[in-house]
Amino acid sequence: MDRKDILSQINKIFIDTLDNEEVVIEETTQATDVEEWDSLTHIMLVVTIEKHFKITFDSKEILSWKDVREMMDSIISKVEFNN
Amino acid sequence: MKEFKQLKKNITKDFTGMKIIKVAILGDTSTQFLTQALKGLGYDNGINLEIWEADFNQIERQVYDLSSELYEFKAEIVIVFQSSHKLLGKYNKIEPNQHLLFASNELDTIENIYANLTNNLKAKIIYYNYTEIDDSVFGNFANKTESSFLFQLRKLNYELMSFASKKQNLYLCDISSIQNQVGKSNFFQPHIYISTEMVLSIDVLPRVASKTIDLINTLNGKFKKCVILDLDNTTWGGIIGDDGIENIQIGSLGIGKAFSEFQYWIKKLKNRGIIVAVCSKNTESVAKEPFEKHPDMVLRMEDISVFRANWENKADNIRQIQSILNIGFDSMVFLDDNPFERNIVRENIPEICVPELPQDPSNYLEYLYELDLFETASFSNEDTERTKLYQIEAERAKVHQKFTNEDDFLNNLNMLSNIQAFNKFNTPRIAQLSQRSNQFNLRTVRYTENDIDRISTSDDYVTFAFTLEDKFGDNGLICVTILNKEDGKSLFIDTWFMSCRVLKRGMENFVLNTIVNFAKKNGFTTIKGEYIPTLKNDIVKDHYLNLGFEKYQSYFSLETQNYQDRKNYINIKK
Fold first, then answer.
1. Does domain B226-371 have CATH number 3.40.50.2300?
2. CA B541 to CA B533: how far, in whole Å?
3. How many CB pairs lie under 8 A apart between chains A and B?
4. What b-and-e string marks burial along B105-127, b requiring 16 or more CB atoms within 10 Å of the CB?
């Protein structure tokens, strides 16, 4: 699973969770760039991503990501650990 | 059950025309998602919950400060959610020598919150009980150590139940039972809690919302009153017509056990006041035989209010049952093992609840337990008598067919009605009827026992409670009116509701005669009434016009001066 692949999977989750077909995220995207991405939807994103990749984030990670890149770093490290 | 994400999408839908219910939520953890889940599930239930949410951990400030936003909002329902995790936090902070008193001190706090809320707000309180968590300091020994957290938590849950049983307006929402069903690891996610202060997992939110809305619906008179049973492979194993009475499966052996346990459950529902009816494709005499003769049957003929066994289609039979019982289809549950029959009934009567019974009868009960269909907000002696009342009604319906003239039939019933003002003996039944009456209810204002107490002692009101009995039996208290003295001259009918068991007996005329006679004796010249439409009360749309009232813009009015007593065949019982 390369980063591009993971990004496109996350993008789908964003579209579905934020209920907005037009959301396009990049690795550099931050919460402030997406209107619907507030602290509440963030938790829904976290839970949905966890389910999708069958991983569990550490509590300190959840609130520490500055952008999508860091979120992806967490995902990749967890997925690799599982394999 | 829908997922939280789907419920959330409901929030932006159109709520116009739905009943508005004002709900306040007070939590010691973050409740935003719970609020969204409730709002969204409300949409699927046809109710528009207008929710005010306190900032988290503001319970005491909101409750004890009479100028707080909570009191300004004037909620009809206040949900208080104090979590087990915060409870553990409090336990951790106190001195060990105080641990023994922990539950009683907490209960004192809750009693205070309840007293303040109900003294300053005309609201019902829903309190979430405590999910079981153990700090594992004592291991199994916690169970015999009164100062342990586990002991104190369980004690608090028990004491809460005991407190709620004495308080009219306190209802416990049993979220602990949800955790028992889904397991603690699905109920609570530590990493989400640590980063967000939310104790409910996203996945469990719909269940918690659903259990809460069940309560809210019940408090608004929307609950199940009747269960209709199929027989073959639902009530017993096998097919009575083919297998014969000695070969159907029931009793303590093999799969028979599943059906016996199912029947015990139905019997307990019946004892609680749920009406049990039978709808089966069978020859009537064959279908009745097990109820009369089989030694292992738990259900007997006297448990069944209406018994329909024939070869007609089930939707028509259920309509017949409905017309005898006179309750809404949405208060009925139909249990049938056959998916084909279930679909026919669902298609023809969309309001009725038809659970998808699992294929294996041994799973029936666990499935039905989890659906938790039979919520109630009250329980009285009258409930246990209900089956008999409806059996009598079925009997009466048979006699009615013999009379061609309505007047002859009514005269022949030898009806007697006792009239009383509200008092401490009839108050529970009046409050209960106020919650249950949906169809014959002119304004559908719901009153609790406390409200009824208040009204009965106020000089501003005149109250009447009517019973009705006839040669077939006693219907008990079936009709209530509350008259508000607007001034020395006119009486406003604040409340008039009647049990649908006694429709078409001339009771309306008898009641109006009683009201007008009172008015004349006490110098009132005008009686005013109002009809507030709901989804259910269409049958009384023209009630006041039929009784000779004249319509003004928003109300109906009757002058007492030239009133002639209206015809009926009911005599006053002293």
1. no
2. 7
3. 36
4. ebbeebeebbebbbeebebbbbb
Helix (H) or strand (E) holding B415: strand B415-417
A46 touches chain B (CB under 8 A): yes
Residue type, B492: F
pLDDT tens track for A47-61: 999 999 999 998 888
User: Do the beta carbons of residue B439 and residue B537 sit within 8 Å?
Assistant: yes
The helix/strand/coil state of A2 is coil
Which pLDDT band holds residue A11 (cuts at 50, 70, 90)?
very high
pTM over 0.90: no
Interchain pair A59, B202: CB under 8 A: no
Whether A32 contacts chain B with CB within 8 A: no
Query: What pLDDT, on the 0 to 100 scale, is given for residue B234?
Result: 97
Nearest CA to CA, how far is B135 from chain A (Å)? 20
pLDDT at residue A45 in the model: 93
Count CB-CB contacts under 10 A for residue B310: 16
- The domains spanning B226-371 and B403-572 adopt the same CATH topology: no
Burial of A70 (0-12, 13-18, 19+ CB in 10 A): middle
CA A47 – CA A57 distance, rounded (Å):
9
pLDDT at B261 over 90: yes
| Per-domain boundaries in chain B | 4-219, 226-371, 403-572
A26 contacts: CB under 8 Å, gap ≥ 6: A7, A68
A57 and chain B: CB distance < 8 Å anywhere?
A: yes
Mean pLDDT of chain B: 92
What pLDDT sits at residue A82? 67
A43 to B196: CB separation less than 8 angstroms, yes or no: yes
Task: Say how many residues make up chain A.
Answer: 83
A40, A44, A62: residue with CB nearest B191:
A62
Give the range among B132-146, B212-226, B370-384, B489-503 with minimum mean pLDDT: B370-384
Sign of CA dihedral B55, B59, B61, B65: positive
Domains and CATH numbers, chain A: 3-82 (1.10.1200.10)
Q: Which chain A residues have a beta carbon less than 8 Å from that of B202? A: 43-44, 47
| Residue of chain A minimizing CA distance to B196 | A43
Instruction: Determine which helix (DSSP H) or strand (DSSP E) holds B53, and give its type and residue range.
Output: strand B47-53
Question: Which superfamily is assigned to B403-572 in CATH?
Answer: Gcn5-related N-acetyltransferase (GNAT) (3.40.630.30)
| Residue B124 β-bridge partners | B77
Q: Which among B9, B192, B203 has CB closest to A43?
A: B192
Instruction: DSSP for B465-510, please give it.
Output: EEEEEETTEEEEEEEEEEEEE-SSSEEEEEEEEE-GGGTTSSHHHH
Nearest to B9 among A19, A44, A48 (CB): A19
Contact call for A40 and B190, based on CB within 8 A: no
Confidence of residue A83 (pLDDT cuts 50, 70, 90): low
At B32-58, the pLDDT tens digits run 999 999 999 999 999 999 999 998 788
Is the per-residue pLDDT at B401 higher than 70?
no
CATH number for B4-219: choose from 3.40.720.10, 3.90.1150.30, 3.40.50.1110, 3.30.420.40.
3.40.50.1110
Q: How many residues does chain B have?
A: 574
Helices B449-457 & B427-436 angle (0-180, nearest 10): 120
A44 with B5: Cβ contact below 8 A: yes
> Which among A39, A44, A56 has CB closest to B191?
A56
